[in-house]
Write a structure and sequence with these properties.
8-stranded antiparallel β-sheet; 2 domains; about 25% helix; Pdz3 Domain; Bifunctional nuclease domain; about 260 residues; 9-stranded mixed β-sheet; alpha+beta; elongated
Length: about 260
């Protein structure tokens, strides 16, 4: 009991009292967990959130432990032993508080920031938190998830609809990818991925081993089977070198594109 009381005092000492029960809707938009890509047991994982209309998204790289916790909460899976977020949720309940909503507020030097908004009777508290922790807790309490509108990106940026097929240009590396149509998938023996439809002369892609007609199946270990996934992963990777998993003539291989060339 003394330990719980100590933790409670510690939490409250870092909390700030507020009077609002929802974020400023002119600057925050409600989002939901759309997908988690990668193996949480082997390292960082890509998570991306989408608006309810599925027209804007935010992608982030998070630790495997947080990704696993989010996965459990999202799919209502109970681990054999309680995770840290389960214990924290129990503590919140014990103190007669509840998470109203969380808000992903900003990013600085590739680090995202979030706030957890709680209420307990007439008391209102705000806790500074990592977005991954905030999301894991929000899912456990059926709380709303918000994101600053300036952080959200449009699925339509830098993409064109040509003959009904969505395309995306990677100007930095000099190649264009497109979604595979049903007939294309049948031609490539049901391979899931993105077709490299064009490579610009004298570009980084042209200097690499990439060829038009290659099918990209993953980026830096994350599956990329459509334009939305591709954009989210590219955004999350930032300035890292890119490792493309491709299929060519039925064979799999990996091609590296360096960001600093």
């Amino acid at each position: 009991m003394k330990k719980i009381l100590f933790i409670a005092i510690f939490i409250i000492s870092f909390a700030v009292a507020i009077s609002c029960s929802s974020p400023n809707h002119s600057s925050a938009i409600q989002v939901e967990v759309h997908a988690i890509h990668g193996d949480p047991h082997s390292g960082p994982v890509l998570i991306y959130l989408t608006t309810q209309e599925k027209d804007r998204f935010l992608s982030m790289m998070i630790d495997g432990d947080q990704a696993l916790s989010i996965y459990y909460a999202r799919n209502a899976i109970k681990p054999q032993r309680p995770l840290t977020h389960d214990l924290f949720t129990k503590l919140i309940d014990t103190l007669n508080y509840h998470i109203d909503f969380i808000n992903i507020t900003g990013v600085k030097e590739d680090t995202y920031y979030a706030a957890i908004h709680l209420s307990g009777g007439k008391n209102k508290l705000v806790l500074d938190a990592r977005p991954s922790d905030a999301i894991a807790l929000a899912l456990r309490q059926d709380a709303r998830i918000y994101c600053s509108s300036v952080l959200l990106k449009s699925y339509e940026v830098e993409s064109d609809d040509i003959a009904g097929i969505r395309q995306f240009q990677m100007e930095k590396f000099g190649f264009t990818v497109q979604n595979l149509s049903k007939k294309m998938k049948e031609f490539f023996q049901d391979t899931e991925g993105l077709l490299i439809s064009d490579i610009r002369l004298h570009s980084r892609a042209a200097r690499s081993d990439l060829q038009a007609g290659d099918i990209i199946t993953g980026i830096n270990g994350y599956p990329a089977i459509n334009i939305s996934d591709f954009k989210a992963i590219v955004t999350a990777i930032g300035d890292e070198n890119i490792l493309l998993d491709i299929v060519r003539d039925g064979e799999q291989k990996t091609v590296e594109l360096k960001n600093n060339e």
